[in-house]
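Review this chain:
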Amino acid sequence: MRRKDREITDREEILAIIRKCDVCRIALNDGDYPYIVPLNFGLDVQGDQVFFYFHAATEGKKLDLIAKDHRATFEMDCDHNFILYEERMSCTMGYASVIGHGTIETVPDEEKYAALKILMRHYHAEDFQFNTDMIGVTTVLKMTVTDMTGKRRNNIH
């Protein structure tokens, strides 16, 4: 990372940023160009291992690409704010972000309900009851995070 002064290495601080984000973008291998898709996600931390859960239809380009190459890069960001330096007549943007890599697999049918509960918990604090009839027509994906780093830009001169 070029700007070490913005790097976040504390794992709990990185997880706090992830918990504040509402979209995770994943980049998949699509030959000449990466294929990037924004997804809702759920975070699960088991000891030192971080997992993300995503949901999808039962077919589509994303699933085709994952079947060919299950490696992915992810990115998420939050805390965006405009920072104006009137005395310098310049501006920048504040943010917090997390970038990393992982491998994606399809969650087996018998584990889909628990995985979807993790995903729902990210957006709804209470235990949310949802229509389980949709599980049969939903693909649930699990990303095992292999590495991640955080970065933050505050409004410090």
